[in-house]
Amino acid sequence: MANSEALVPPQHIAIIMDGNGRWAKQRGLPRTAGHAAGAESFRRIANYCRTLGVKYLTVYAFSTENWKRSQDEIAGIMRLLRRYLEEALRDMEKNRVCFRFFGDLTRLSPQLQKLCLDAQSRSQDYDVQVNFCLNYGGRDEIVHAARAFATEVAQGKRKPEELTEGLFENFLYSAGVPDPELVIRPSGEKRTSNFLLWQSAYSEYVFMNVLWPDFTPEHLDEAIAEYHRRNRRFGGT
Ligand code: IPE
Ligand code: IPE
Ligand code: MG
After folding, report:
1. Strand partners, 205
2. Once rounded to an integer, what is the mean pLDDT over residues 206-228?
3. Which ligand is located closest to the Cα atom of residue 135?
4. 135-176: pLDDT as tens digits
5. Which homologous superfamily does the CATH classification assign to the domain defined by 9-136+181-227?
6. Rounded to whole angstroms, what are the CA distances from 155 to 148, 150, 152, 160?
7. 180 touches 174 (CB < 8 A)
8. 61 Cα–ligand 2 center, Å
9. What share of the chain is helix, strand, coil (3-state, %, to 5)?
10. Which of 26, 80, 187 for mutating ligand 1's site (highest number of atoms within 8 Å of CB)?
């Protein structure tokens, strides 16, 4: 177990779980094997976050752009998600994780949608809240929110001039969840890939040269230590 001495973790950490495919390729394995290893890594890190006392963990599991991948790979990822959620529902009491899902779930299979809804409704008031980003895109989220607000205007419930940043946030998938202080991207890529565009406006980004399946609690400690070295000014001096 990593040494977490004296590092008070941020209350909300977000992770772009990237690098599964490259991890598999390095080993001559199919990409799906990389996703299976990535799912293990997620279990490990979610547990570690609970140990540290992190309140919210948001993970990017499948983006609105990931539908461009092969049918085989998508089916493999969906199978792993199904298995993970079935297991999470079974071990709910033990893991004490509260689930929320960010993204447009309507494109997922009815079976997977039901598992998501069950996981969300049956896990409340637990220690850690995991926000699973599934068929999630930051741009899609903003458009979805704008449409929901416009609908209320059209229904006469609201006036356009009522809209503020604070009100708009209530229409996002992340409504009620504080913005992440820290966003971690493993795998060596240095881009957001459409993750939490609104919420990460003032987040500290830590890019790490490790593939997600190899990501350990020590890497999380390292990212948190790096976060503590940053000077957050929020536009001030
Ligand atoms: C992240 O790993 C998992 C998903 C996007 C679903 P990748 O599959 O993107 O792995 P690389 O980037 O190809 O190594
Ligand atoms: C971002 O990774 C999405 C997830 C980790 C779920 P990608 O692998 O899809 O991003 P790009 O293609 O490198 O930008
Ligand atoms: Mg990738």
Report:
1. 183
2. 98
3. 2
4. 999 999 999 999 999 999 999 999 999 999 999 999 999 999
5. Decaprenyl diphosphate synthase-like (3.40.1180.10)
6. 11, 9, 5, 12
7. no
8. 9
9. 50, 15, 35
10. 187
